[in-house]
Amino acid sequence: MMDALIAAPLLLPAFAGTASLLFWLRYRWIGAIISIASMMGLIALAIVLMAQAASGGAIAYALGDWPAPFGIVLVLDRLSALMLLLTALLGFAVAVHAALTGLDRKGWHFHPLLQFQLLGINGAFLTGDLFNLFVFFEVLLIASYGLMLHGQGAQRLSAGIQYVIVNLLGSTLFLIALGLLYGVTGTLNMADMAVRAGALPEGDQGLLRAGGLLLAVVFALKAALLPLHLWLPRTYAATAPAVATLFAIMTKVGAYAIIRTMPLIFGDAAGTFLLPSALGTMLLGFFGLLAARGLADMAAFGLIGSTATLLTAIALFDGHAMAAALYYLPHTTLTAALLFLTVDLIIRWRGVEGGAIVPTPHYKGQGWLGFQFLAAAVALVGLPPLSGFVGKLLILQAAIPSAYMVAIWAFVLGTSLLGLIGLARAGSTLFWKEDANPAIAADRPAPRALEALPAAFLLILLAALTAGAGPATAYMEATSAQVFDATGYVRSVLGPEQGGAGR
Amino acid sequence: MSIEFLVASAIGVLTMAGIYLCLRGRTFPVVLGLVMLSYAINLFLFAIGRLIVNRPPLYEKDLVEYTDPLPQALVLTAIVISFGMTALAVVLALRNFLETGTDQVDGILEADPPRPDPKARS
């Protein structure tokens, strides 16, 4: 019975999305309530599942009770439980923010799309089957196309079509990789593939590596790594900032897929490509942040930079570095989300200037926004007292035994400085300089303090991650050990005798 | 000519055309390119279970040789998804053209842009 609960994070948003679709026009507030209630349910579910995952090894649930290598399994372990909780918390903040700011009334079907997006993301985190991972990627992408275009506008449309085309090409590459892997190993179940990949004859190893690297390329595209990052800034800057808040988890889906598949099936061979690429992306992201003229651009480049910091730690493929990366993962997601929500509030409360980084006359709520911006900036750059400091410290410490230690230290510290300069400059322009032009000052909308609640919620979560750094790192150490324990994973999916009798 | 050679070259030619069209600057050729690529992928997926002619796709005890049914199921899923995605891309491209007045992928007007007639929008 408890095992069947693993499927609940997929069923709940599916039903909630459909139910909120029923009230699409006249009773849209009912749809919003269903959506928010579903997010609360997802948070509760994620906490229960996390407690379950923390108490033992990975748990597999066979959908339709077909045994593992043949049917599709959902696998719950510490990593997927962590990602589920993070997604639910972020989804809750976005749903409440959209309902409070009226974003969900600017177009059709915001809440159903949001629910289906969560269905796709949760599915990608839970599935133990590579083709099923592809299907859930498509589900989350289809919903994200709708959300990205929500509210419309010419700029959003032309950025949207690029986003769609890039992701269609990504899906094509994904299918080629799946074809290669299936052709070589004869299975699509991740655990079964891990078993068979080890037993492949020498001649097929090359094809397996090619398939694995193609998969890595697809996941790097989702995570916006260096040569494949070009789609992200424009998409995230053109979309509504509250939607971009949710998209902060989408780059982490790529990171998650790398953590899940690479150590299990392909070993650490991808690290040699990932590490330089992640370092380059980090530099590019923070340079972009320094050069950005608009707030949304700045937040998008900040997201690229901090995701690259995360991927640098992942690319080391080592127990301690992975634990550091896993601690940094919720931090970077929450930080990027907080930054995007802050940007949205600044745009709304200033009223006139939009997202441009220019001085304005004093407006109501400026003090709170200044504090929020400061907190997001401190977290993004990695200054004490917020969790970014702990996370970057852990990453730097984990990099000491690596051969690339000097490069990693130089890049992480250097880009932190770049980010600090960029954010400090933007912040002082936005909040300290005053443009004494009373004509514009008169017709500003009165801000509603209620709208800042979701951002305050994220801020509290960040503070909690900092205050609970001890238990959190203990959890992450155990998670990291579980990620590298391929035999344990295989055993819990295929049964104790390692199953896999073959086709 | 063997069937392997025919299928392999068909996949190759389709992929080549798809990649070339995807690199074009206008949305219509890009969408066509995506269609070509998805055809190539469908063929490729079909062939990953090895090409076996005239054999049933189901396993029975006394059968020595049978075709792998799984790739066919995968192709079916891939066809459905790529069909839906292509439809979405076409609609988006159309909306983009009507709204920005250009069918350039990066949304920047060329010297001689094909402007849609505002009256013809409805």
From TrEMBL, chain A:
Membrane-traversing stretches: 26-51, 58-76, 82-103, 124-148, 160-185, 206-232, 238-259, 271-292, 298-317, 324-347, 367-391, 403-424, 452-475
GO molecular function, one term: NADH dehydrogenase (ubiquinone) activity
A cellular component term, taken from the record's GO annotations: plasma membrane
NADH:quinone oxidoreductase/Mrp antiporter transmembrane domain residues: 128-415
Keyword set includes Transmembrane helix: yes
Compartmental location: Cell membrane; Membrane
Any GO BP: ATP synthesis coupled electron transport
Pfam families per UniProt: Proton_antipo_M
NCBIfam families the UniProt entry points to: PRK12666.1
UniProt name for this protein: Monovalent cation/H+ antiporter subunit D
Species for this entry: Novosphingobium endophyticum
TrEMBL record, chain B:
Keywords: Cell membrane, Membrane, Transmembrane, Transmembrane helix
InterPro entries reported for this sequence: CPA3_antiporter_subunitC, NUOK/Mnh_C1-like
TM region positions: 6-23, 30-53, 73-94
Domain of life: Bacteria
Pfam families hit by this protein: Oxidored_q2
One term under GO cellular component: plasma membrane
Compartment(s): Cell membrane
Membrane topology: Multi-pass membrane protein
Family membership noted in the UniProt record: Belongs to the CPA3 antiporters (TC 2.A.63) subunit C family.
NCBIfam families xref list: PRK08600.1, PRK09094.1
Protein name: Na+/H+ antiporter subunit C
